[in-house]
Design brief:
It is a single chain. Helices cover 47% and strands 17% of the residues. By secondary structure, it is an alpha+beta fold. The protein has a domain of 100 residues: Tetratricopeptide repeat domain (Serine Threonine Protein Phosphatase 5, Tetratricopeptide repeat, Alpha Horseshoe). The chain has an eight-stranded antiparallel sheet. Strand 1 and strand 2 form a beta hairpin. The relative contact order is 0.07. Pfam families: DUF4236. InterPro entries: DUF4236 (IPR025330), TPR-like_helical_dom_sf (IPR011990), TPR_rpt (IPR019734). It comes from Arthrobacter mobilis.
Length: 339
C-alpha cells in the first residue's frame, strides 16, 4: 500500500489546509477529534487515541468520483450525480444482535455497550471485540484488555472484510495507524489491520517477540515491512533488517523509514560507509516529514561519530537543532562535543 505525499499548513488555530496531488483539503478540530473536507466533496470524521498512533476514520460524505464514462466533458452533454446513497440501517425484521450492534457502532456510538453485546450475541462478538479494543480499552489505557480482545480475534482468523455487517453498515470505515515514527497508514477493516493493531499493543506492553510473530504472519507489503523493520531493530536483528530493505529507493515515506533502518543496521554491523549511503538516499527527498528527516540526520551523525568524524557529526546534529531544539536525545548528543 502506498503512502501519500502531502504538504500541510496551519491557517488558523485548530485549522489546517492540506495540499496533495489530488486536491486541497481543510481540517478543523483538536487533537484526537477532527473533521476534514476535501475539494472532491469527501468529508470525514477522525477520532484519535492520543499517545497511541491509532485513530478511527468515518466517511460522512463520500464526495464525487474521479472516473468518467460515456461522452467526453467537451461534448456538451450533462450528467449529474444522484448523490450519496442513503445510509443503510437495520430493517424492522432484522435480528436483535444486528440492531444492537448497529446502534452501538453507527447510530449512537457507545463503547460501553460493546462488552455486553459481544457477550449476549455470538454473531456480534468479533466486531464488538474489535471496537471495544479500539474505542474503549486502548483509549482508557487498559492494555491487558485490549491485548486479550485482539489476540482472541486474531487467533480466530476473523476477517472483517468478509463480514456482511461491515460491508453493509461500515463500508467506508478505516483506521489510521502510526506504525513507526513519521509513518502513518490508513488501513481498511481487514485481518491484516487486526494483526497490526495486535502487534502495536504487544509492542506497547514490551512483548516484542510476540509482536514479531504476529507481523510475520501477515501478507507481505510495505506496511508490514515497516513494522517488521522497526521490530527487528528493537531485537538487534540487523541481518534481517538489511535483507528486508534490499533494492530500496526513496519513493514514499515508508521507504524513507526503511532506508533509515537499513543505515542503522549497516552501522551496527560495522559498515559505516554502507550506512551513510542508505542515509544519503533517505535524505535525498527533502519533502519528507520532519520526523523522518531528523531521525536520518541523527543516525547519520552517530555514524560519523563511529568513524571519528566529529565535525561532520556535529553538523548533522545542529541541522536538527535549528529545526527542533527539543528533539529527544539531541542535547545529550551535542554535549559530547563539550567534553
Amino acid at each position: 500500500m502506498g503512502f501519500r505525499v502531502r504538504k500541510s499548513f496551519r491557517i488558523a488555530p485548530g485549522v489546517r489546509m492540506t495540499v496533495t496531488p489530488k486536491g486541497i483539503g481543510v481540517s478543523a478540530g483538536v487533537r484526537g477529534a477532527r473533521i476534514s473536507a476535501h475539494s472532491s466533496g469527501r468529508v470525514t470524521r477522525t477520532v484519535g487515541i492520543p499517545g497511541t498512533g491509532i485513530s478511527h476514520v468515518k466517511t460522512i460524505s463520500p464526495g464525487t468520483s474521479r472516473k468518467t464514462t460515456g461522452a467526453s466533458p467537451r461534448s456538451g452533454s450533462a450528467s449529474g450525480s444522484a448523490g450519496p446513497a442513503p445510509k443503510a440501517a437495520p430493517g424492522l425484521f432484522a435480528p436483535k444482535w444486528e440492531k444492537e450492534l448497529y446502534r452501538a457502532l453507527v447510530a449512537r456510538p457507545s463503547a460501553g455497550d460493546l462488552p455486553r453485546i459481544g457477550f449476549e450475541f455470538e454473531q456480534a462478538r468479533p466486531l464488538a471485540a474489535l471496537f471495544e479494543a479500539t474505542r474503549g480499552a486502548i483509549p482508557h489505557g487498559d492494555l491487558p484488555r485490549a491485548l486479550e480482545l485482539l489476540a482472541w480475534l486474531f487467533a480466530t482468523g476473523y476477517d472483517p472484510a468478509r463480514d456482511a455487517f461491515v460491508r453493509k453498515y461500515l463500508p467506508d470505515t478505516s483506521f489510521t495507524l502510526g506504525i513507526a515514527d513519521g509513518v502513518e497508514a490508513q488501513l481498511p477493516l481487514d485481518r491484516d489491520t487486526i494483526g497490526l493493531l495486535l502487534a502495536e499493543v504487544q509492542q506497547m506492553t514490551g512483548n516484542i517477540a510476540a509482536a514479531v510473530d504476529v507481523v510475520e504472519q501477515l501478507e507481505p507489503g510495505t506496511i508490514t515491512a515497516v513494522s517488521l523493520a522497526e521490530l527487528y531493530a528493537l531485537q538487534g536483528r540487523w541481518e534481517e533488517v538489511v535483507e528486508l530493505t534490499e533494492s530500496l529507493r526513496n519513493e514514499d515515506e515508508a521507504a524513507t523509514f526503511l532506508l533509515i533502518q537499513r543505515g542503522v543496521a549497516f552501522r551496527e554491523q560495522g559498515f559505516p560507509e554502507a550506512a551513510r549511503e542508505a542515509f544519503r538516499e533517505a535524505l535525498r527527498v527533502r519533502t519528507r516529514p520532519a520526523e523522518l528527516r531528523h531521525r536520518a540526520l541523527i543516525e547519520r551523525g552517530l555514524t560519523y561519530l563511529t568513524e571519528g568524524k566529529r565535525a561532520m557529526a556535529r553538523k548533522d546534529f545542529e541541522k536538527v537543532l535549528a529545526e527542533n531544539s527539543t528533539y529527544p536525545g539531541l542535547r545529550e548528543h551535542l554535549e559530547r562535543f563539550d567534553a
